[in-house]
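Exam revision sheet. Question 4 asks you to relate a sequence to its structure. Input first:
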Amino acid sequence: MAVWALYRYRHRDGSSKDWAVITHPDGSISTRWGKTAARLPSVNTRNGVRQFDIEKQKQAKGYVFVAEVTIDNDGNVAFPGQNQNHVNQQAENEHLRPLVETLYWHIDCKADHDTCVNLGNEVRRMLGDLQACDDRVTQAEQDWDGWQQLLALTLNAEQFTQSGQIQQAHGVMPWLFLLALKYKGFADIDIDIATEHSRELSADLKAEPEVLAFFGTDLDSVRPVAERLGLLKPKLNLALAMADQDDSWF
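Answer key, structure tokens:
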């Protein structure tokens, strides 16, 4: 079984995520990643890069080498001396758990001053948009500690690193807010959001029905807020758009 180099990044809240890399005989590089667990589900293979170079990039972001491990085709990780059958059983047990239990978020801002200023401005603008929708924001969502953390961290337009969690009780708004920031794609600002079981979430709401269900909502219910945050394009109301047009069908 192939031997991979396993690295780990530890968040301030005590959670962690893993990243593994291997060079194949044909020179291609494969990487696997996800929340620290018995299985790393996400995988990517590419050419034209060196393992040494991408390992250095990860180390610069705070990843620390853990061990050389074996990983099978399903992403199940086995440390030296660990029984692979036991690892496979652990992975099977994980598959039986709910798809979403907690969301973990991490922001690594290494941008220049101007980009940090733009990030701070965007944080405040989006919070203003959410306040304008205050009839949709519950008290639990208002109590999420991430609001004040991000306001404070972006106040001085400086680089920072911050992590946290979004529980079901916090409601859907914190997740929508972070997704909208991620969707903006600020240079040198990495925003990662993952489920309890290591799946990285995209900024495409239509691809995340399980997360919406976790918060007890659906796409249509969050559409007004999502449109305001820029996550969804406004639906075209054909009747309204043609209201001022002359009837020339016949």
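Marking note for examiners. Residues 103-229 form one domain.
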